Amino acid sequence: MGKPDKTTSLPAWSATRVVGRPVPRIDARQKVRGDAVYTADVQLPNMAHARFLRSERTHAKIVSIDTAAASAVPGVLAIVKPDEWKDVLLKDNLGRGIPILADEPKYAGEEIVAVCAETEDAAREAAAKIRVVYDDLPHVIDPEEAHQAGQFVGGGWRKTRLGEPAVYQRGDARRALTSGGRSVRIFERTYRTAPMTHCSIEPHAAVASFENGRWTVWESTQGVFAVRESLAEMLGASINDIRVIGTYPGGGFGGKVSAGKYTFGAAYFSKKFARPVRFVQDRNEEFVSPYGRPASVQTLKVGVNTAGKLVAIEQKGIHAIGPYEFGAEWGHAEDLLTEIYECPNVHAESIAALTNVPPPCAMRAPGYAQGAFALEQMMDEIAAALGMDPVEFRLKNIPDRDPDSKRPFASPKGRHGLRECLAAGAKNFNWEKRKRDRKTHEDGSKTGIGVAATIWGGGGGPPAAALLRVHADATADLFTGAADIGTGIRTALAQIAAEELGIAVERIRVTNADTDLTSYTLPSYGSLTLASSGPAVRQAAHDCRTQIISLAAQALQTTEDQIALVDGYAVRAATEEQPEWITPIAKLISQSPAREIVGNGERGPNPKLALKAYGVQFVAVTVDPESGEVRVDELVAVNDSGRVINRMAFDSQLIGGATMGLGMAFLEERSYDPASGKLLNANLADYKLPTIFDQPREFKLDRVEVPYDANSIGAKGLGEPPVIPTAPAVANAVFDAVGARIERLPISRKRLIDSLMKEQAKK
Amino acid sequence: MSYPFLLEKVRTLQDASRRIADSPGKAAVIGGGLEILDEVDSPTAGSTRPDILIPIGQIPDTSYIHSRGDQLRLGAALTIAEIAESDAVRRLAWPLSEAAAAVGSPQIRAQGTLAGNLLQRPRCWYLRGGFSCHRSDGSDCPAVTGDHRYHAIFDGGPCWSVYHSDLGLALHALNAQLIILNPDGKEREMPVRDLYPDPKKDPLKFHTLQPGEINREIRLAGLSNRYTGTFLKITERGAFDFALASVAVVYNNFHGRFKNIQLFLGGVAPRAYTPEAVVKTLSHQKLDRSLLAAAASHAADVAAPLPENGYKMSIVKNLVRRALEVTYDKLSWKPD
After folding, report:
1. DSSP count for chain B of H helices, then E strands
2. From 1.10.1660.10, 3.30.70.1230, 3.30.450.20, 3.30.365.10, which CATH number describes the A409-458+611-763 domain?
3. In this structure, how many other beta carbons lie within 10 angstroms of the beta carbon of residue A338?
4. Could you say which DSSP state residue A721 is in?
5. How much is the average pLDDT of A532-542?
6. Cα A448 from chain centroid (whole Å)
7. Which of A284, A626, A689, A747 to probe the B interface (max B CBs under 10 A)?
8. What is the pTM of this model?
9. Best residue in B1, B49, B109, B311 to probe A by mutation, most A CBs within 10 Å?
10. What is the pLDDT of residue A3?
């Protein structure tokens, strides 16, 4: 099926009717009314329930597991100890496995026993009655301590041996920093970011049913095909033994990219007992499962010349990636500094420190969000030291081509998304005026302003495919593998199909994220979904369009270039010789031989260009130096994600991303008790997510649509970019207000007051 | 989503009282359920969780607001939202009204009750996280060497947990009385200040009620127009949060002087805490706004913080100054 590699050959849309408009989500009503069925909502007849017993100790050898009392709980079906599943491994992106159940738990909360029972209460009660005898072993929570002890591997996408960091290098940073003499000024600082949890509103969840030798699995996931592959491997089953359905995941943020331990548990028990099994984590478990953003300690050393050009960047990042090498790919934060600004000499070491905390996974802008907190504050610090405006300093260092790959950018010559975002942001924020406008209020609070920038890939790519069937009444069914993790991708894809077909968005039904009904597509991660699946859908719709126009041309005995599809009609405009001619698309299809028009689309490869999305945020804050309170008065966000498909969803992404960024900036932190290694705030009261009162008093959102022709819809990703610049922009604004550099996240009342005390002590 | 327990309905408060007295440690009252269900799910180390919960929401005459003259009587099963929305409370006891509005989120205020808010276990993530500690079994407080950023800076040790009931703090400043029903059907009256035992003397108890005793009503004398008062709290986030520090203050203008200063801090000591130096500095002084900042600067004079929570001293001084200035500006008569 499909006609590969045609997606970029379609001409760019000149004028659009549906694309670019603010379109409410096609599933908004179902979601608001509670009609959308999420995995945790799935109820099947005769369904059993499973849960894990988790380690109470941070690192221990299990001496014994006594299940006698647990087995006696009425309704208990099975209790599985580590031995029984010892050959089953959950694997990370680089194929490193961890056991489903640990016989030597290495972090508090690690899964050690699985229980299946008639009811959720019985499973819970049985788990509570299992008696485990532990023999405690030493533990390390602090990544710097693990690093010093040599307990680390390289972080990122290349495996290294124990004790060897992953190194990124171009030019010779050390020489540039030591031999520059007085013409190179050097700045150095260490920044720390906190370990975080995704806190999706729907926890990790799977419901599995085994019938006729085949599993059907409902999973709260970003990628049904990734779940299917991972689960097939864990079960030793064929890929076509498994169907995965994930229409409505309740959030993901990088934490639901593939199958989980619970997915295996549900599938295993459903086969064993030949009945559906529900395996849903509770909120507390969400904080101690192998998910989250790892803690980072980043030391930056940056050299800049008298002309205000970056000369060299040295970075050493230490990241707490859990006790296994599993997940070490998320233990790095160097990408942003290797590609955002022109800098000939870069040396970055990524150290994935082996620590007794849950292994991490991707979390919205993995690495970039941590890296930006360091680099974008450093840019601010350098600009101030050079007596330069921080916007101007950034503009001065914008590269002509991708500094890493040396490829040209996929944008017209002379145009650069970041340059245009900075210019638009400064204008929307009224930066020049506000720079001169800071004040101290009567109550002692002070105002400040700050800016930070970001870069992100977001170019998307194959594999992604779509199938579109247009029916005899001019309604259509669109089939796409893409998961909608809250971005509104189902709506955006329906808009793209509607644009090509000349029918209304409401006439297109979207079936997505079902391995039996849709074609193979990458998970919705890395802000790639729109730029991957969008061109595939356009191709499929264009395929249908061509067929409909051909029918119209035949009916009228004219050429195809005379026909347009508008509002459900095929139209030939009036000319001097002929009057206007118009006929319903429905009529054309109902009278066609096939009585249905089918189109296929497959995402082709990208051109060999640098595919980058950009964004900036400007913030104004009011800081009370006594109480440590910071109020964000205004947040201006400008992003370049190429062509905006849905203006409403664009705005929502910016608001959602910046709000999550404010959580990272001010509130979110997993707090570990140093002595026991246990998490102290594994709940939503003590792990503080931002509320509506923590949002800025005013959001001002804007886009620059730098033309982008690396794919046929002209769009780049937007999911991750808006979360990246928030924390450094806020930190820069706080510095502007009170003169204390914030070296550690989150900027809690305590950290701000402590930082001010430290500043005072220095003076 | 919880451990199984028995929900047992009773007809009167006294039936509830008797049932609890008859099954010590096994039965408890459930109001809004926010605290008791937390406790059932994650019990304090070494404690037995109740198996029988007795809902009192449906019992008649437990949720009322009666005002007669300047007397205010509040049924203990009132929701926090009902208190926040009450005109009588706003008119006669506005610091309580402000405290109620500052609790949690609209959902929590709709669910939580007055008595439940008063009887929350102390705020400490070790105590509530099931760690063995001074309040659970008399062992050493793990917060001292652990993460104590939210812990006490006054009166700390051997327990460093903090008192954090917003309603309770306001009721301290309003000098409220509790009406307590016992299993014999008799009632006793007790100041809200005596509801909380001194953890230095009685570490294993979280309140001074006897088994089976039920807090039935809260009584207080309303504030006349010579009085001023407020409740303020500083939190980490904009809503749905406990206080890093809170303050409730009430005083009156007695012939042009500061008089009857009731000043209590929450979130900074195991019990509601009065910074005496501030009270002493202002008491009987002529009303004068310029005295307030200087007085507030003494709010943390006797603080003895742990290594990582000294920042609360800065917060407390700021909060007390704010509270004094807000209340001063609200005085119906002032010289300046």
Report:
1. 12, 11
2. 3.30.365.10
3. 21
4. G
5. 98
6. 30
7. A626
8. 0.96
9. B311
10. 40
